[in-house]
């Protein structure tokens, strides 16, 4: 799991250890296991938020752990062209390469530790695929896709695309150097990540060494979730066990505690977690397929707009002599 790493963690800024006499530690409300499924053209995913009430996830809607899978030559898969409206998609690549293109001209290539942040807003079409050379060669594919809701006032914002390089993330360590903390968006202990968000959130990928513990200050008005990408350990002051593919939901408070088990597998030598939280929007959510709106009527309108071509058209493919357009 390369993502972004450093040769000497001791040179990084260190997160201040919260004073337990002042800061209230968040308790663990639940630990759930992500079921497996398939997405797009058939790539395997874990449904990270399955079984968790949408009100507890707010402002998040959906999250898939994509892979981890080692493709043989010819096997890598992506998604076909499809529409979105009313939210933001965040794709974070841990291993492998993904190409993005959308009908607004946004797009790019992301690999180990990079993030593509797409604000669908009023609506667009997009596609995510492995590059041709990776399809031919095969290889490891592992990433996360997160859906972040937009408040009603911003669901009609103009689409936007952000290409966030892994090296731009704010890199921090715990006081004892036992954990590497990558701040992708939001802020941890005054250190800001590069992601620009419509909805106030914090998104962190942390690697915790065997036997080490990480206590992070967390904004009190945000919810708090920890998803295990690899390894095993515990969460909360009561050291509740957690392992790969499980999600911990925390209650209110000022800090989040995560610890790595002393014994880890050879294949996954550290505890890797995705830590996320945001300020709840607390608005009605109506969603179907690729649309996340406030009312059922708005979702129906989104489908009608898509079918009428109002969410954009698939860009021309050069060299074919004709444009490709959506079939619906």
UniProtKB/TrEMBL annotation:
Binds 1 Fe cation per subunit. InterPro entries: Pirin, Pirin_C_dom, Pirin_N_dom, RmlC-like_jellyroll, RmlC_Cupin_sf. Its cofactor is Fe cation. Fe cation binds at residues 82, 84, 126, 128. It comes from Kribbella voronezhensis. SUPFAM superfamilies: RmlC-like cupins. Residues 204-311 form the Pirin C-terminal domain. Keywords: Iron, Metal-binding. The keyword S-adenosyl-L-methionine does not apply. Residues 43-148 form the Pirin N-terminal domain. One of its GO terms (molecular function) is metal ion binding. This is Pirin. The keyword Metal-binding applies. It holds the Pfam family Pirin. It comes from the Bacteria. Belongs to the pirin family.
